[in-house]
Each structure stands twice: as structure tokens, then as C-alpha cells.
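ok so heres the complex, two chains, lmk if somethin looks off
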Amino acid sequence: MIAEAGHFALILAAVLALVQAAAPGLAHLFRRPGIAGLTGFAAAGQAVAMACAMAALIHAFAVSDFSVRVVFENSHTAKPMLYKVAAAWGHHEGSLLLWAALLSAFGGVTALWNQGLPGGMRLRVLAVQGLVSCGVLAFLELTSNPFDRLSPAPFEGRGLNPLLQDPGLAVHPPLLYVGTVGVSVAFAFAVAALWSGRIGPGWARAVRAWTLIAWIFLTAGIALGSAWAYAELGWGGWWFWDPVENSALMPWLTATALLHAVRGVERRGGAEGWVVLLAILGFGFSLLGMFLVRSGVLTSVHAFAADPLRGVFILALFGLIEGGALALFAVRGHRLSGRIAFAPFSRDGALLLNTVLLIVATGVVLFGTVYPLLAEVLGIGRISVGAPFFDATVLPLLSPLIALMAIGPLMRPGRDSPRRLLRPAGIVGGVGLLAAAASAAWGGWAAAGFGLAAAVAAGTVLLLWRSRRSLTRRGLGMAVAHLGVAVAIAGMTGGSQLADEAIARLPVGGSLVLGGRSFTLAEVRAVPGPNYIATRARVTGPGGLALTPETRRYENPPQTTTEAAIASTPLGDTYAVIGEGGPDGAVLRMFSKPLLPWLWASSVLMCMGGGIALFARLPRLRRRER
Amino acid sequence: MNRNAWMPLFVFVILLGIAGARLGQPEPPLPSALEGKPLPAFSLPLLAGEGRLTPDTLKGRPAILNVFGSWCAACVAEHPIWAEVGKRVDVYGVAWLDEPAKTRAWLAERGNPYKAVGVDKDSRFALDMGVAGAPESYLISPEGRIVAKVPGPVTETVWKETLLPALEAMK
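and the predicted structre for the whole thing:
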């Protein structure tokens, strides 16, 4: 019964989305401004209806109602409650429902939060959001109804993929979805701007705030996903350039570019067309990710079960939304751009150049991600593009970007002279070169990585020192986020260039040597878990270090997972995994990953920086409203 | 009119074309790691009681091996086809992760089209075969090689277009 109520809420939401999309146009057509007043109500109502639908699905999972097909296929009574609830979005239908619910929630908030925008702009933004919602809800209702019933109802479910039984993974998809769906707001603003033909007051501020919100969640979601891959997949890696990882990275790169480009528009105008294009592309990459994951065109650990009809439907949806926006941009984009009011050699110039570099990097990632599709279409064969391609193309592109990021913020906005910049650039470059020289013993990549990290850190500290008397919260947020980037580069460089690895088949009592330290396999025993049986090893190392890596054998569905044991210190991780083993011995694989924990710390720094900058915005917005 | 403003749309349409062309192509079947390989060694107790189901039971004639369970909803939907398939080829069942009493009751209600049913209660056979979920079926050659694997239910279409031609080719 509750499932039917959920289904009803879903249909209601679709109808409200239609009203939301059509009301402003109808009001204009019939010259009845009163009709336009429905838009906001429809948006808020749609958000409530979708929240009800999502709650109904979560309820079905919580009580294990196996008469609902997706519950039967993805849950099991023997699962802990957290994973029962998380299973509600661990499959195609549920995750799409969550996606759509978040889209509606963003629409509802846009309707309720005035943001100091002129009425016409607000209505247009809401209408665009309603249109996007319409498409997604039609897709949900027509091809992927999460409330389908089974008759007769089975007694037991098939169980969730045990790989997904991890607390990090229970929250990783929702966080990432808030991010990828969040960029839809900037998209709606961009289309509304093209529609009205001008960028009004408050537009840039609102776009920046919404993009910042999406960016924070994207950052957190990507970081959690990487941390999960690192802890759970047991390969000692944290990023695999998997197509689905890339499809989260592309919106992140674009949102980063948008965040920086819109700053220029907010400050002094110019490059409006570029900002609008970035906003359209950002949501385009979100939709592309949705297509790649759900259409079955790619084989990936993340891919959902394929259904050709779904693929065609998403492609059509993607074509209409993104193609429509780009066509509008082609016809009207040039009307928006004002005169560029800054010299190329200035902080704004550097900022703009960096957004271009970011988009070029995004383009390269896009190329590597869709190239396997192209190869199949052209009949070249099944090709997978992996880390070597991306490492060889993206990293060289990012290096000048990061160098510019170290020096750019020290430049003056509007116009600057190379002579004035000489001293700060000398300091930043000097610190970078010093760090590079100090780490040159570990090879060229390590030198480049640590040099760039040090340069960014030095540039940021110098900026903080210079503006110590006039530091705004926004400046502080930027500095914290930039420091986060420096820490991230150091963590990535340490974790890859300074890493060490050892593998051996050991009897109990045997030991292996990793980076000069000796580790002993002390014990291997079987331990029962709630819905699995674990083989747990105890590995002891110098300084009283004890690690307990496990392999878990699940029954429903039958599958084996590895649980890496990771001992973290601020200086680095010691990482242990066991392969097949019994009471008398096991295959032990160990990695040392110096500085890798810095990567996780850096994501916290970046999110904090974003948060500080965001909350610097809100009070001012409210003041404007009054 | 600014010509550069059309570039993003142009690139997008190309991208859309590639994706659309790829969608139009039939999914190239992932080569199963097992196809063409001999059956792994197994020995399952028979549901009927005495004796065991082993690769030797199947040898000499083509056979179909169907992994099912009384707990599996898709197996209920699939079940009727085996009566028809059974007229052309020997069909053997493997009751996966199931209590023999439940399997017996399930077969008593729906009819037993299987020549013999092996009991794989602890999933040993399913792990060796890499069974991803029930139902799953295999076409086995008279020499005991796995000729084809069907993950998911065998439908009328799968039987007529995949299994039957493979069976005819063997004869």
C-alpha cells in the first residue's frame, strides 16, 4: 500500500513539474500574470511529493517488502539496517528516484529562497528546472518504475552486492548526487539568462552560491568514493580512471572552472558568454555521466544492468536538454557578453586562463572516456583507455594550471605589471624549486609534484600574510581550499611516487620486508560475521603495529570481498591485504603509502574552504532581500 | 551571429551521434570464461535420494544444466519452458542454496521436468561455475564441454535463437 502511495506521489510530482514548466509561458500567452504564481507552488509541491516517494521506497527496503521487485532484487532480511536503507539507492531504479528527488528538492529551494533576483528571472529559472524534472520523471515512470510489484511475493531477497556493504559507500552516492544534481541549478540560471537575453543583478551571485554548494558535495562525494575504493577493493589504489569515476570528475572540473569564471563576472563583468557556456556544460557532464552509467554502453564496476530502451530514452533526454541549451547558446550567447574590463596580465586574466585550462583538461578526460565507444562504433575493436593515457595527458595539462594557481591570486585584479609581480613570483617559485630539489632523489614526478604543492602552499600563505588586515571570509575560504589543493598534490605524489609494495605466501610465523620494515603473519583464523564468514589474519610489525586484514565470504549472493587493514599516521599508510589462506598460512600483500592520508585531509580542507566562502555569501544575500 | 558560438553544439551533436550509433549496435556478448571448457569436477547428492549427479552422469548425449531454487521468482517464470525443452534434450537441474524439502514441494506443485536434480545447498558447485544468480543455464556437449551459458531465465526466444541452433549444430 505504501509502495502504491509512493508511486502516486511520483506521478503527482511529474504533473506538478509539467505545471511548473508551463505556467510562466501560459501566463505570458494568455496575458494572465496570475497563472505564473503557480510556478513556485508547483516547484515546492513537487519537492514534497518526491520526498514522499523516496520515503516510501526507503520504507519498503527498511521493512524488507519483497513484493516490491527492486527490494527483492537488491535486499535481504539478514542485512544490517544501515545497508537495507542504503540499498534503496544501490540499484538503477532507486538511484534514479533519488536523483530525481534531489532535482525536485533543488527546484523547491530555488522557489522558496528569494536570492534577491528579479521576478522574471526567478520564473524563468523555475520553468527550466520544471522542464528538466519533467524529462527525468517521465524517464523514471516509463522505463524504471521503482514501485513495481511481484506476484507472488518471494520470501527472501537476493541480497545487495557485498562490495557495496561499506558505510562510506552508503553515503557516497547521495553526496555525489547532491553535487551532480546541484549543478542543474546553475544550468537553469544559464538557460534563463539566454532566454531573457540579459544577465540581471544578482545573477552571478546566485550562480556562484549554487555552484559552490554543488562543488562542495561533488568534492566530498568523489573523495568518499576514492576512499572506499582504496579501503575496499584491496589494490592499494584510489583512482582508476574508470569511466564512471571520470563522469564524476568532469562535472567537478567544470564546476571548478565555473566557480572561478563567475567570480570575474560578479566583480566587473565580461566573459558572460563563457560563464553561461560553463554552466550549460557542467550539467551536460552530469547528464553524460547518467547516460554512461545507465545505458549499458560501458562495462564498468559501477554500471547498472542494461536495458536498451533506457539507453535510447536517456540519450533522447540528454540530446533534448543539453542540445536545446547549446542551440540556444549558439543563437543568443553573443548577446550576453559585455566588454571585457580587464587586461590579460591581471588576476582576472589568470583566472580566465585557468578556467580554459580546466576545460581543456575536462575535454581530454571526455575524449579518453568516450574513445572506447568511438572505437566500437568504427569497428576498431574493444579498447579500454586506462591510467597510462590519462596520466600522460591530464597531468601535463594540470601542471601549468597549478603553477598559475600559485601565482595568480597574488596578482592585482584589472591590471598588473610583470615588474610588480617579480618579487612574489620569485618567492613562490623559489620555494617550489627548493621543494623540487629536495625531493629530486625520488624521481622527476616526485620533484614536480612536491615542487608544485610547495609553490601553491607558499603562494597561499603569502596571500594570507599580505591581506592579513583586510581578510574577508571569502578570501579565507579561497585560501583554505587552495591549501587543500596543495595538500592533495603532496598526498597524491607521496602515495604514488614514494610507495612501496611486497607480496609473499607466508606460513603462520613467517615474515616479509616492506621498505626496510619487517612484518610477521602472526595468526589466521575464521571469524563469523552477521551475514558472512571472514578469514582474518593478524600481521604484526615494528613498534607494536598490528593489522588485521580479512577476506569475507558472503552467502547471499555468494561473493568474496577483501577488507584491507590500514594503519594510518600523518606520515603515511601501511596497508595489508590477504589473499587465499587457511589456519596455517596465507598470501600476504602489503603496501606502504607515504603521505596518502593527506589526500583525505585535503578533501576536508577543500570542502571547508567552500563552506567558508559560501557562508560569507548568505548574510549578504539576505540583506539584499529586505 | 557569432560562428564560434555554434562550436559547442557541433561537438555535442557528434558526441550524441557516436553514443547513438553505439546504442544501435547489439551488445557484443562478453566471452564467458567457461565456454568451450570442460565442466569442473563436481559431485552433488541427488534430490531423489540414492546416487550423485556428476559430470559423468551427463556424458554421451547433449544436456542442459539449469541452476534454480525454490526461493527464486524468475525461476517460477522460467519453469514451464523446461517441459518443452525436455522433449529435445536431457535437462538436469541444480537446486542452489535451497532446502531439499522446499525444492521437492516446489517441483511437486509445478511439475518436475528434470531428468535428475542435484542439491547444491552450500553453493560449492555455484562457486566453481561462477554462477552470478539464479536462474542460470548451461548447454553441455556429449563430451562434457560447456557450449553455451545463459545467465537469467531461458525464454522462448533464447531457446529458439541461441540454444536450439547450438544443439542442432552439435548433432
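quick notes: The longest strand of chain B covers residues 90-96. thats all i got rn
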